[in-house]
Amino acid sequence: MNESKLRELLAQVSEGKLPPDQALERLRTLPFAEAGQVLADTHRVIRQGFPEAVYAEGKTLTQTTDALTALVGAHGCALATRVNSETAALLLQRFPTGSYDGVSRLYRIGQLSGSFACPPVAVVSAGTSDQPVAEEAAQTLEFAGARVTRISDVGVAGLHRVLARLDDLRAASMVIVVAGMDGALPSVLGGLVAAPVIAVPTSVGYGASLHGIAALLTMLNSCASGLTVVNIDNGFGAAVAALRLLHTRLVRSGT
Fold this sequence. Notes:
Layout: H1 3-14, H2 20-27, E1 33-35, E2 38-40, H3 44-48, E3 54-55, H4 61-75, E4 78-81, H5 85-94, E5 99-101, E6 106-109, E7 121-125, H6 131-143, E8 148-151, H7 159-163, H8 166-170, E9 174-179, H9 185-190, E10 197-201, H10 213-220, E11 228-229, H11 235-253
Parallel strand pairs: 3-4, 7-8, 7-9, 9-10, 10-11
Antiparallel strand pairs: 1-2, 4-6, 5-6
C-alpha cells in the first residue's frame, strides 16, 4: 500500500462507502507482509517515499521470489538489485512482465506511479568500467519516475570531456557522480555546479585502489564543500538519497 491508496482507503471510510472493520482488515498487513522466510516491509514507501527493494545477492531464488511477490502484491511494482543472469532467467518465468538489465543487474517489475516535476538528475560516470554502478543509480531513479541525463566516460584524466558537458550538468536538479581509481571527479564537479552532488566510489582500479577504499577516502576528504558520499559500489543508495532530496524539495515548494 502506498500513500495514495491509504488516502483512498481513509476517504472511503469517511464517506461511509467502506465499513471500518473492512478497512481495519486491509490495514492489518500494512506494516509488513510475511512471505515464506521473508518479512517484506510494505509500509516503507509511506514512511520514506520509496518502497523496500530486494537485495538479491546472497539470497536463494525462493527468498527473492517470495519478497518480490509480497512487494508486487502491496505496491503493484517491485525492484530487485544485484541479480545475476541465472536468477534473472528464472525470475522472468515467475514474473513474465518484469525486465532484467544485465549491466545494472536490476530486475524491475513495473514502476512507481507518478513523476517528478523538476529538471533531470545527472548520472555521471568517470569511466566505462564504472558503468554498472552508474546504471544501477540511473535505472533506480527511472523506476521511481525521475528523469535522468546520462554523462559517461568523463574522468579527470581528460578534464576537457566533462567541461564540454557543463551546460547539462548545471541544468540538472542534482548530480550523482560515479568514479573509481583516484575518485577525483566528484570533487571537481562539486566545485562547478550549484546542485547537490552525491559521490559514489567504485571498486574499479589497480591494486592500491584497495577495491574502492582509495576512492572512498578521496571523496570523504573532498575540498568541495557539501559533497555527499555513499558506500562503495552503492548506486542504488545514491539514487534513493537523490529521490529523498527531490521529494523534500518538491514538498517544500508545494509542487
